[in-house]
Amino acid sequence: MNSNISAVTVSKSDNRFFPDITDASSLLIVEGPDDKEVIGAILRVHDMEPRFAVSVEEGVKNLKYAFSSRLKSTNTLKKLWVIADADNDCNAKWQMLRDCMIANGSYAVTPKTPLPKDGAIFDPSDENGITVGVWIMPDNDRPGMLEDFIASLTKENDTLIGHAVSKVHELDGDRASHPALFKHAHIPKATIHTWLAWQDVPGRSIGTAILKHKIDFSAPLCRIFLEWLGKLQPGD
User: Fold this and answer.
1) Dihedral, CA atoms, 56, 61, 67, 72, nearest 10 degrees?
2) Where are the alpha helices (DSSP H) in the chain?
3) What's 232's DSSP letter?
4) Which helix (H) or strand (E) holds 56?
5) C-beta separation of 42 from 16 below 8 A
6) Residue 23 CB coordination number (10 Å)
7) Helix axes of 220-230 and 33-45: crossing angle, nearest 10 degrees
8) What is the pLDDT of residues 68-108, one digit of tens each?
């Protein structure tokens, strides 16, 4: 790892790290800017220069439309990866993306095709088609989202994450006293941002926490995710 990487900051609006989408042969579709920031930070920590572009689609409906539409674009695109949040049901989110591939007709996918725990990669039947990769946060199995992925990678000796979990659940259980409280579905987001608020320095972004080595990069989930993501690189 680069010993100077912790001094680097990462911004949700910093597009210089990833190649331009125009004429990209490898493209990653994500739901929101936090996903792009986290991916950029993880790659920087591992001294990996991305040779793929990232398209932020701002929500699951836009992500589904972009995924389905991009599958039809074979002029320059050769690899299309997508990262989506499981939210309440990982299987339902997988079904949504799987149905897009079934409708496209170029993949050996059926309504019963399972989502591999180490992330999906499907080659097209046409040699000139697009190879597809799917990862559903946090781990291709559980309900949850990006923030659950980050929480599961906090270090074993982290003394703050447990307190953040307890405090957020305590507030969630007393909603009548807090009319402006976060939505129940956003408990993972509230937990991670509470954890970030208690760091030294407080309130920095998730990407910056990653660059400051606040998560365990040796954790199996991180290694599996990075291996899956690395296969998006052109020529790999």
Assistant:
1) -130
2) 33-45, 60-70, 90-104, 146-151, 161-172, 187-197, 206-211, 220-230
3) T
4) strand 53-56
5) no
6) 10
7) 100
8) 999 987 678 999 999 999 999 999 999 999 999 999 999 99
